[in-house]
Amino acid sequence: MTLTIHVVPGKAPVEVLVMSLVKRGNSKFWYVQFQLNHRTIIRSTHTTDRKAAEKIAVKIRAEAHEEIILGKKKPTTLEAALTRYLAIKAGSPNHVNLVGHKRSILRLMKGSTPLSCITSADIEEFLRKRISEGCKPQTVKHGVNCLSAAIKLARKSGYDCPEIEIPAIKIPNKMVRYLSAHDEKRLLKELDPAREGPGLPCFAKRSAERQRTIQDNYDLVVLLLDTGARYNEVAKLRWSQIDLETRSIRLWRSKVQNESVIFMTDRVAEIISRRSLTRQSEYLFSNKSGGPRGDCVIAIRKALDRAGLTDCTVHTLRHTHASRLIQNGLNVYEVKAVLGHSDIRTTMRYAHLEQAAVTQKARDVINRLNSVK
Fold it and tell me: What is the Cα gyration radius of the chain?
């Protein structure tokens, strides 16, 4: 162990404590450990050969000196920055989406590009290409946010990063689409387990597995309509989360990492009670092997199309639940609790419905006052 004093013109002397190579924990590699400007540096040489480790240690100390004393930033590439950002997001509800955004970014921008060379114009070009591909503004915004977050993390970690301006992406404020009572009736008719039509064998000749999947689609849609849950929350629902005695469901909100207790409507209780008599899996809706149902919505989308609801998606069922609650007296804060939103701003998309309900109440008040004049 030696103590060295580095003198840099115009700067105070800097102490460097040089230590021998060490082994740490259960690692088979040699580690270099030293102090520089009151900072402890510990890095792996990624080698078990001591002589090779000594050479690598010299390089590590030189790089640390350039970074800490001379202020030189570490170089990195666009792909490495994105990989580093996704690594800290592993296990988060949004990780799968981030992987998709990373793939899109690297398809349109060279991953080997030094991060320091990325400009605002490059971000604008990425944005333009994504829009030209027909991506929705919300999807483009999430992709740009992923890129921006990767750059910010790299800067915070001491890498050489550009000072870029992230373009603002305006999200159109569209009216929320929800089903009317008539729309719902048409949809459930197209999902009716006893339905017969083109592409379907007659009811008596259907296989047990085919009839099970048809029944699953009907039951699942009713649960989505009456609980307001997200599709994946119901598709992964376990019997252990269901209490038929209290008619309650403990719903795990994976997107926002919280749990809600949902109470069953009469028709949900009837469906779950019926299904409990024939359950063969730990999941309320299972696949052929007994695992969770997964992202299997093609049949439901086709039913929406047959019902003439071509502008609707499975998520429209959640909007329908929220809209009905607002229209029948619940305020946005109560609906926020029912839907499991983490931010009231998400629930505010239904605020116009609440305002309409309030103005109807105001009309009724005025009518009552006018009648006693």
Answer: 30
How many of the other CB atoms lie within 10 Å of CB of 60? 19
Contact 22, 53 (CB under 8 A): no
Measured from the Cβ of residue 149, the count of other Cβ atoms closer than 10 Å reads 19
For residues 362-372, give the mean pLDDT. 84
Encode pLDDT of 56-84 as tens digits: 888 888 877 777 666 667 889 999 999 99
Q: Give the pair of three-digit tokens for residue 175.
A: 């009216």
Choice between 46 and 38, residue whose per-residue pLDDT is larger: 46
Look at residue 130 and tell me if it is in a domain.
yes
The dihedral of CA 144, 148, 151, 153: what is its sign? negative
Q: For residues 303 and 353, state if they share a domain.
A: yes
Residue 37: the pLDDT is 75
Residue 5, pLDDT above cutoff 50:
no
| Same domain for 226 and 275 | yes
Structure tokens given for 67? 């970074």
Whole-angstrom distance, CA of residue 241 vs CA of residue 261 = 9
Q: How far apart are CA 102 and CA 215, in angstroms?
A: 38
For 262-272, what is each residue's pLDDT tens digit?
999 999 999 99
| Per-residue pLDDT reduced to its tens digit, 134-153 | 888 888 999 999 999 999 99
**Residue 306 exposed, middle or buried by CB count within 10 Å (0-12, 13-18, 19+):** middle
CA distance 23 to 8: 32
Whole-number pLDDT of residue 1: 40
pLDDT of residue 88: 93
Q: Which residues contact 25 (CB under 8 A, 6 or more apart)?
A: none
Amino acid identity at 300:
I
What CATH code is carried by the domain that includes residue 127?
Answer: 1.10.150
Q: How far is the C-alpha of 184 from the C-alpha of 267, rounded, in Å?
A: 14
**16 within 8 A of 34, measured Cβ to Cβ:** yes
Task: Return the number of other C-beta atoms located less than 10 Å from residue 103's C-beta.
Answer: 11
Do 218 and 285 fall within a single domain? yes
Contact by Cβ (8 Å): 75, 114? yes
CA 356 to chain centroid, in Å, comes to 32
CATH number of the domain where residue 193 is located: 1.10.443.10
pLDDT of residue 70: 61
